[in-house]
Each structure stands twice: as C-alpha cells, then as structure tokens.
Amino acid sequence: xxxxxxxxxxxxxxxxxxxxxxxxxxxxxxxxxxxxxxxxxxxxxxxxxxxxxxxxxxxxxxxxxxxxxxxxxxxxxxxxxxxxxxxxxxxxxxxxxxxxxxxxxxxxxxxxxxxxxxxxxxxxxxxxxxxxxxxxxxxxxxxxxxxxxxxxxxxxxxxxxxxxxxxxxxxxxxxxxxxxxxxxxxxxxxxxxxxxxxxxxxxxxxxxxxxxxxxxxxxxxxxxxxxxxxxxxxxxxxxxxxxxxxxxxxxxxxxxxxxxxxxxxxxxxxxxxxxxxxxxxxxxxxxxxxxxxxxxxxxxxxxxxxxxxxxxxxxxxxxxxxxxxxxxxxxxxxxxxxxxxxxxxxxxxxxxxxxxxxxxxxxxxxxxxxxxxxxxxxxxxxxxxxxxxxxxxxxxxxxxxxxxxxxxxxxxxxxxxxxxxxxxxxxxxxxxxxxxxxxxxxxxxxxxxxxxxxxxxxxxxxxxxxxxxxxxxxxxxx
Length: 478
Known about the structure:
single chain, five-stranded parallel beta sheet, globular
C-alpha cells in the first residue's frame, strides 16, 4: 500500500492493503468507487462541494436533460451498488413500461421489452444523489470534495498517485496510491497529464451532431400522475455529416415530456440546423408545438414553470483511443466519459459509466490489484465497451439489421433520449382524455407486476413523423 503523504491523512481508517484514488465524484466516479471498495480503500477526489439534498429546480446543471434508465442499466447499477433502484423508487422515481415498438436486433441479440421490460423515469439529480448518499457509507470509502486534482505523479511507465489542491484553502498535497482512476468525464485532462509524463498523445475521434438541447421543469397539473413518457418528432429532417459514410438524416426537432419525482414534468427540446431551441422562455412551448404534434406544447402552455430554460450547446462527441497506445502506465485507468463523451442528445453516458465500473470490478476479481498488467487490460476492455455506443452515435456501420435505421439503433443503450422515439405519441384527443381522467386503463399481459404505471388504452396513435417511403429510405422495424 502507498500511504498518502498528506499530513492530516492519519485520521483516515484504512482497512485494505491497497489504496485507490478516484478522480471525479459524479455518477461514474461513485460507481467506480463502489466497484473498488471490495479490493482497496478508496479516496474520491471531487472539485465541487457535493450536495446530499435535493437540488432546487433552478440549481439543475444545464446537462440534466431527459434521462430514462432502462431495466438493464438499472440492474447493472444495482449490482454495483445494491439498493439503488429501491432508493430511486422510494424518492419518487417511477417504473414506466418500455414501448412495444422499441425492439430491434443488434450484435448482442434482440433488444426490447423482454430484455428491458421497464424504464426508470426520474430526474438526473435523483439518480446522482441516491448514489452519492450510498457510496460514502461503504467501508473504506472517503470523499474529498472541494478538492481538485492538479497532476499525476510517477513516470510514463508507472503512476504512483496524484497531487491535489484544496479549493478553499489552496493547500496542495500528494496522495500516493496503488491505482488512480480518471472518472472526471467529458472535460478530462488525462491527455495533457500523460503527455507531461512523456507518453505520446492518444488518437482522438471527434464528431459533432450539431444538436442543441433545452430543458425546463414544470409543475404537473392535478390528475396527471399516470401520464406516460411522451415524445414528438418533426417530419422535417436535417442531414448530419459523418466521417465514415454519407450524411444521415435525423429529426430536425423533438420534444420529450418525462414525469419525474415531486409531481413535476421535465420537458426537453432538441433541434438541429436552423431550427434550434433557445433560452427564451416565451419560445419554449411554441417550439414544442411545432415538433410534429402540438400536444406537448399544449400541455405545458398553462403549466407552472419551476425552472428557467437550461440550454446545452456542447454537441460534440469525442473518443480518446487510449486502448491503442503502444504502452500504458501501470497504476492508472481512465473510464466512462474520460474515454468517450457523447453528445448529450444521445445520452448513453449512464450506460457507459455502469459498464465501465463493472468491467473494472470484474478485472479486479479476476486478476487482483497486484497484477502489473491490470491497468492495461482494463483500458483495452474499456475501448471495446465504448465501441458500440460510439458507432451508434456517429452512424458507423454495425453488422445488424437495425443498422439501416440509426435513430432506432440508438434507442438500445441503457438510456433512451429525445433524439430517438421513446414512445408513439398519444393523439391530442387521447392526451386530453387522460388529463380529464376518462381514459381506460388496462393491464398488459404478463407485465403488470413489473410496472407501476399500466399503459393507457387509447385509439391507435397518430404518427408524429412522416415515415420515409421505400424510395427515400428504410422504414423502422415494426
């Protein structure tokens, strides 16, 4: 074990022969700490002061757009951190049914209602907060918030720790560790830190979808507790360039309404090209009305807003090819968004975080902290994990019948996002009947035990998009 050189670290109670430092106290970092906790004492270094209480609507960061965690993703998180799903549900998250039409074949097999029978609908704040409350209670885990990582220590062959700075006092000190994990996400500076140690720069793949996302939270009117997730897409499409083939079409604009905890609606708008949402509150509902079906705009027009409009303009996707470097230092791993950060409108970050942490745990169980090749093996595994999400996001070819319709393919990460159809939209008349409480509720054969909210019996839904004809492009699977 490498003890910390920080003079006040003597107050830490070490229970394992090894020490790991995790950079980043977000969703990825906390799951990583949970994966490490059975093998080492863990210190989580987080620059911000972490709040363990619910965030006010006005405090929600810009990137907190609509997130729907599917059953597979929820089970993965629960395996890493038992009790997470129960905590989400206890604090107001809902299980909602997976729409029947979300079924397609991928290289891993058929994805749809059998594999992902439900979605977890709640705010991103709740997903993060429940995890942040659990991890610090694990034996041997310490969270140093308000602490910023400045540089890695060691050599190009072996990382021995990290130098950190207290953001309040300015005090700097060194944390020596047997393993350092970068879980700082999209804004990771690992490339620069490794370059300072003498490593060559890793290759980077960069694409930009050009999609802008805007989110606002509303108070749900009385009687709307059974409202399902609603998504509307415009019939007009924008051509997005990709590096590996011809430009592909995506909906020019979308609107998604997700019922979240606290009797609220979270509404996310996306737009590309010349039709993008803005931060102007007065234009939010009108934009939603022109996304193919006006019902979401009509529903929120008279609803009480609980937040300002939060906009995300950072639409680039970036993959860092650490797995291809000819050499990799022992004692260091980068995972999650530090390796691949995808455009927020594709929303696969939660899935990548959970799978990356699970891969680290599996490698530790198989090889142990003593294996000098551990970091290299994990880094290559992470490279394989991010390959498919990257391909789905950027439109790279996959050997799958579903590849013909990238928008459908993208639905089968563990997070469903506004850029893909999460459910057929309710006709306006059906939505109004739902709000008045006159819609008929019926169970789904064999699935009611899995869902809190049974689907709504309504007439066949109207399409919210103009599907391409055989002459103009493939149809999505029925």
